[in-house]
Amino acid sequence: xxxxxxxxxxxxxxxxxLKFSLEQDGYIIDAAYDGEEALDKVNSNEYDLIILDVMLxxxxxxxxxxxxxxxxxxxxxMLTAKGEDMDKILGLEYGADDYLTKPFNILELKARIxxxxxxxxxxxxxDKSRQIKVNGMVINLDSRTVLIDDKEVNLTAKEFDLLQLFxxxxxxxxSRENLLETIWKYDYLGDxxxxxxxxxxxxxxxxxxxxxxxxxxxxxxxxxxxxxx
Length: 229
Fold this sequence. Notes:
Shape: globular
């Protein structure tokens, strides 16, 4: 089945160009031109990925991202103007999976989309119906859900990918470069700060006290690792 993508941008020419180009790759494209319309469409349709502009009329893109993330973990790629704060875009309060700065190269966008779908397919093929239990946390690798003290924690796709990598390799230290290559693959052209942002966001969600973690630890000057206790 072809993947369905929602493109949200208030510039009709951008939407038209993305729709034409992505349909050439076999994607099914739906469009929304403001934040309100985007939320309506997300609530009434199922999408495999959302491309979301930050600057939107009626409801801004970051608020749209936040509202979507409260309900579901569908991958979201943000389109931002130069100077936007990446920490905000990828951070705890919004939870986008990736971002591109306008003007962007359509080939780079396609590479990001393919990387996201490839990770999703690989995860589905590799995941078994099994659980990892540690310190009150239950990670279900099949349903990609996380419970802490019997309460579900809402993680984005990349946050779960990070947690799964750590939890299936307890005690192993991953450098930031290693995490960037493993989670974002070689298609991703981001910087090492992306890793730190996602680790910080993940800790905010799973740690009772992020400054004194129980699960994800920092090995100073080397990288991050998951508890082996």
